[in-house]
């Protein structure tokens, strides 16, 4: 491997020489003596491995972004800038986040602490974080500006930034106190200043080792040519699924293609009749880009894993797995999304409703990748995403439901309902849609349609939920949607 492959860690270049493509960023950092970041689970669940990476943030700016180092191949950080807890402050001169955690008792055994520090520091530096009073008087509005509530501090700190970090001994109150005590970065803060400059460009990378080859092409034509040469190569985007396969299942890729920074997969375009979302934009980036334009997705995002995972996870990866329990398909089915597939032969477009063909099977050929997802505009007036899972955050769905309904003059003009977790593939609830369309949006009609919905799909028993429970959840979801959205006349009150 050529020695120019290196990662800038806490301002020091760390060569990737001799690093196997299957080595994750956490093991790479710890092998350098940077043992602050810990391995708690190696599957993205605990955040003990959290580090900050400088990511693009539109124009010439960058954004410190917290990610799970245990999931990302070290090779994917070639040319990138990483900051670990060691790089933020020193025992003599603590970083504001470290100081608040120390003085407010936010750390006991300390195992989780460096990970919390990095997630908290990324939120500390979030450019649009501002105190509530300032947000109220400036033009601060939209999905990232909040009143102080049980999840947002007076200082604008969004506790969801810590939703991917677990602490087993301190208790979360002192950690929350530390987060809410943070002020704005001081004048001249080097990390805040770094954000006004662009993130490093993605380097062309080729790393060979005993487990295989990791290659990051420079652009889409190169990526498609590599895929044509190595059909079935593993495409690595955010690596939030792939990293688990590597760490927990011990799977190795003879050939992996890094696609997370391909410019053609990171486009975002809002047109008159559709929004096109690049397949390699992270969910956090899509959420910011949409600025509330698609309310159904705004309901989905906070329920999808944790902020740490959403900082890596992509639409392309969620659809690329073909999983029947991914959370984006039920929402995207309800939104009548189209998948744009690319190969050396060019693009082809497939309605998502025709994309899944069987358990983890799709129409995507081995020489194709997902370039983008297109959502038609305007979106329906009634939208909801219901996720039934054992935990509120950072859990896989037992059942997920996306609703998009148009009700005009009290009559359901259009109903699109996507379901996950109740069949071998994500499906549309076609019988329920038919039971609703053209009918008044009334309690009686909805009760009858809810019975139909309870019979949709072919739910199975597994460790997450029983089949009868899944069916019951389908029916009650429609009743809940009606109760939350109908007018008093429609409810019959
Ligand atoms: C702790 C944890 C919590 C999670 N919670 C949720 C959750 O709440 N809901 C949920 O739906 N998922 C969840 N996931 C799963 C995962 O985060 C998502 O599936 C995510 O969208 C994967 O995106 P990625 O970019 O990380 O994919 P990667 O891991 O990079 O890739 C996953 C697969 O998709 C393929 N792929 C990637 N990009 C493309 C593309 N553009 N074209 C074709 N194929 C592609 C890859 O080859 C690979 O096989 C969770 C994962 C973890 C670790
Ligand atoms: S080690 Fe638990 S999330 Fe990485
Ligand atoms: S301080 Fe012990 S796990 Fe958090």
Automatic annotation (TrEMBL):
Residues 134-153 are annotated as: Disordered. Residues 206-380 form the FAD-binding PCMH-type domain. PROSITE patterns: 2FE2S_FER_1 (PS00197), 2FE2S_FER_2 (PS51085), FAD_PCMH (PS51387). SMART domains: CO_deh_flav_C. Keywords: FAD, Flavoprotein, Iron, Metal-binding, Oxidoreductase. SUPFAM superfamilies: 2Fe-2S ferredoxin-like, CO dehydrogenase flavoprotein C-terminal domain-like, CO dehydrogenase ISP C-domain like, FAD-binding/transporter-associated domain-like. Residues 144-153 have a biased composition (Basic and acidic residues). Pfam families: CO_deh_flav_C, FAD_binding_5, Fer2, Fer2_2. It comes from Pedococcus aerophilus. InterPro entries: 2Fe-2S-bd, 2Fe-2S-bd_dom_sf, 2Fe-2S_ferredoxin-like_sf, 2Fe-2S_ferredoxin-type, 2Fe2S_fd_BS, Beta-grasp_dom_sf, CO_DH_flav_C, CO_DH_flav_C_dom_sf. This is FAD binding domain-containing protein. Residues 3-88 form the 2Fe-2S ferredoxin-type domain.
